[in-house]
Queue: 3 jobs
Job 1
Amino acid sequence: MAGYRLCRVKTAENPFFIENISTNIYSIEELCYFFVGNVPLIDATVMNSRLTAWVANELGLPKLSLKMEHAISGKNGILEFVGVAFSEIGYLSQSEFNRYAENLNAFLSLPGPMKMKLKGDSLCRVGKYTAATRVYREILDDDDGEMEGMESREAFLGAVWHNRGVAEMKLMLFDEGLASFRRSMKMRPTRRHAISYVEALGITRPREKYTEEITAFREYLKGFNDGSDVGEDAIYEAEEILEVARKGIEVDIPADIYGYVQDLAKEYHASAGA
């Protein structure tokens, strides 16, 4: 996918559109490539009669189509569904398939919220930030559901808030992103969470406001135990990253980056119809 098509086997005249990653595929090889790299995204948007009909009609593989239909309704579910596709073209060796099956079963055995988080993370990885924020929001809205009594619940929720903030910043939803980062810091924050928050402040706040919020953040960090990796040096690391980033930008940006970034955000949302 990534801008090219694999062509060792027959390609379809009419592609199949994978909704989760907004990508057209043209061959069984590309479908297998998707299965291998996107386990959390193999859901009802892919495992359906629309795909099996495409396999039969566009790829000329009616027997494979029937096997996939059987897998959808069978007890072995996803593993059988992807397995028959792999077997059709020998996409994976036996040892590779065994490792894949172990990883898939490990994923399927996770609690629902963890599987959803991995889905959101996968969507972020392929640049589908709006869809990712919806997944993260669903997890957080169901805070009192499957997560009740879950081990390391606070750490998990902190990670979800952080990743939601990352997706929102990518969408130039700066206020929402900062709010999500703050929520992550109130859970069980990590050094990465602290650095993300400082970086976000650095590109979205006027200099005076940045100084004010960083001062308050420094006071907040003093409340963590000495053994924590979340501390004052996390701020210094983030500020070094910001300084390197500013020096590496080749366009003329004013010393106070705030107005520049806000203008970019307005242009982005205007072009996106937001």
Job 2
Amino acid sequence: MILCGHFMSFYTLFLQLVSISVIRLLPKQRKVMVLTSLFWGLVPVVQLRAYQLGSVTLISPLCALTVIGNVIVGYFFLKERDNLFKKIVAAILIVISVILIKG
């Protein structure tokens, strides 16, 4: 499972690097792309370790909250303004479900 996550992350990075559009990126954009791929490769490893060390009933809701973080990052840093109402409703539903699961 861990190796699969790493392999897919590096495979995705490789495909992006060899595509023509990515080769023309500025060095700063390449750096961001490489860092993003490496961090996404670490996500399954850290998540699996969290499941090993902690309680599943605690870790699963926290992992569900990462969606809210993605919406926030997309809104402020990537200027994703489309479907904002749907994203806010989805985030509220996620918070409610986490509260209900945690009980």
Job 3
Amino acid sequence: MKKNFLTLLAFVLFCGTVFAQEVQYPQKTDVRWRLFSTQDSNIFLQLDTLNGSVYTLNTTNGSLTEIVELPSGSSSFEKGAYTLYATKDKYNFVLIDQDTAASWLIHWDYNKDKCSCKKLSSEITGHLW
């Protein structure tokens, strides 16, 4: 009986671990607007893939706040040019221009005044090979 209970307990823990994984929903990449989840279940980052602007979307109160506006001249002006990558720090994402390889570290926060954007790399021109 004790062996059956331990087997059942191990099975339940295993299933809970498997099903607790973050769900990734497929997104079209050639669209103007994309939504990226954060580790806060009520906050999403909304990306304008045309110009690299990033907004926080708070699903609790419905607010949409711009946290990043890239300087003019740093945009590919093509849908899908920009994308975000999560880092291990729940407040940091890397924004990359997929056409030029320019990248920025995006720091989001609940307080807009603490949000920041730091340029990581410049554009790469020409061929890399």
